[in-house]
Amino acid sequence: MDVPDANDDSFGIEVILSDGGKTAPCCPHGPTLLFEKVSKGGEKGRRFYACSACRDRKDCHFFQWEDDKVSEARLLAREAENQSKRPPLTQQERVKRFKRLGSLRLDEKKFCQDCQMLLLPAEHEAHSSHRSVGVSSAQLRRPSVLLRPLLNKKSNAQYLFTDRSAHFLLNSLAGLGYNKVLCVGTPRLQELITLRNLEGKHEPMKSLLLDIDFRLAVSSVIMMYFTVQLLSYKPMNKFDTTDCTHH
């Protein structure tokens, strides 16, 4: 297969925006993008689909020519591979798991640094040979402080700011009057914005986190949990907590 080499200086790669008439195939990171090889002379080459998140094919080897006829067997194999690389728990399961964790005594709350996951008491034995640490209530409010940064810049581009830097950015954004923030690979900033909103002392700031780090699925559940806990003490605010499992 003649796969385009992104390091070849004789051509460039352009992204072809979909007109909505064709559904892009999916890789483990979600819907792929359609690319087109363009030579220096402006000649256009064959179009192909590749991962929208990873720039290095070593991190995601998905590749498909646009005009390929993909067999049913290949589609099934692809879906099986995608499923195998997705988070093992659904959103509903993560909510249920965190509620159990929140009811534990402080000395029972553990985080496995090797597996990068919060542990329930029944899982402590299986992780006994791993590096595990206790988890405080403050850390549960900002779970990204427990995580190791993902350092592969070609696929992750993640920035786990220090506490001082994250607060500086938040104060700067608030001081400039911004009330809508897109947090690209900056989970700690997004957590601070959420906690700031929960305090109710400032003008609310809307934020959206874009990050392909599956570990942050736990973070979203935790932040949602504290939001529900706070709103449950405000009788004027009607909030159906059962809906949380669908977001």
Q: What is this entry, summarized?
A:
This protein has 247 residues and is α+β, with helices and mostly antiparallel strands. It is built from six helices and eleven strands.
What does this structure look like?
The chain has six helices and eleven strands. The chain is α+β, with helices and mostly antiparallel strands and 247 residues long. The protein has three domains: 11-85, no CATH class; 88-141, no CATH class; 146-230, no CATH class. Strands 1-4-5-6 form a four-stranded antiparallel beta sheet, with no helix packed on it. Strands 8-7-9 form a three-stranded antiparallel beta sheet, with no helix packed on it. Strands 2-3 form a two-stranded antiparallel ribbon. A hairpin with a 2-residue loop joins strand 2 (26-27) and strand 3 (30-31). The radius of gyration is 22 Å and the shape is globular. InterPro entries: Mlase_EEF1AKMT1/ZCCHC4, ZCCHC4, Znf_GRF. GO terms for molecular function: rRNA (adenine-N6-)-methyltransferase activity; zinc ion binding. Keywords: Cytoplasm, Metal-binding, Methyltransferase, S-adenosyl-L-methionine, Transferase, Zinc, Zinc-finger.
